[in-house]
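User: quick one, fold this
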Amino acid sequence: MVKTADRAVRSGACRTELGEFLKARRARVSPDDVGLPPGERRRTPGLRREEVALLAGVGVTWYTWLEQGRPINASYQVLDAVARTLRLGETERHHLYRLAEATPMRASVEATVVPDAVLNVIHALDPLPALLVNSRWDWMAANDATRYLFAYWHTLPCVHKNTLWCCLTEPNARSYLLNYDEEVPYLVARLRSDFSRHLDDPEWIEDIRRLEDVSPEFAELWARHDVAEPELRRRRVRHPLAGDLDFTIAELSVATMPDHRLISYTPADELTWSRLPETRHDALT
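Assistant:
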């Protein structure tokens, strides 16, 4: 487990790095880029702190403290405004969220090479959504149908790539997963069952600890010690373009990849079959 002192040291390092990152990105945005007059001669390139604060709609003192690495709270909405002002790309936004510790952090996921034969099966199932996950519910591979189905899931860029984390840390998850109160306890129970095979794995232990820290709901469910095995499930999803969709969730083990399973979403009724193509309309543009 990470000690409190160690976390404090890491937090301080993040804040220092955040300040340097913001200064560097501010320096590369010119007043002309954001529609401001050049004004008097500038001693440094780019925008002034006051200009960033004005354009982002935040206080000058607050933004100055953010650049100075002070331990202040930064909401997603405020960080988004700063990111837009500084014209950050998606990778840079993720970096900003991590350094500001606004994104719940999780243990790293070891890279896994997915065999071409498995990838071919996943993509061949399209237009049915299908994906490969490990026993921690990390997404290892997914077809286009899956990405279309969940294209609108997040209010912020997804940094977790994990079914359970995305459910428990996304504020709008209950609006999209209509049987949330059935499915999330089941996912946690499955995690608890699989944890019995990873009791001495520091990545598993740290991942669970961090999820307990950021989600009281998870901490409560985890404390129940409920366990579950794979079973056919109904999952009801509300898609903003296609409407309410009802799926049967099936799991297939992958013989060449222990600790992994292929998840498929099959429409459970004719209405879902007919609506499924509508998920693809403009979803990834």
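User: anything notable?
Assistant: The two ends are 42 Å apart (CA to CA).
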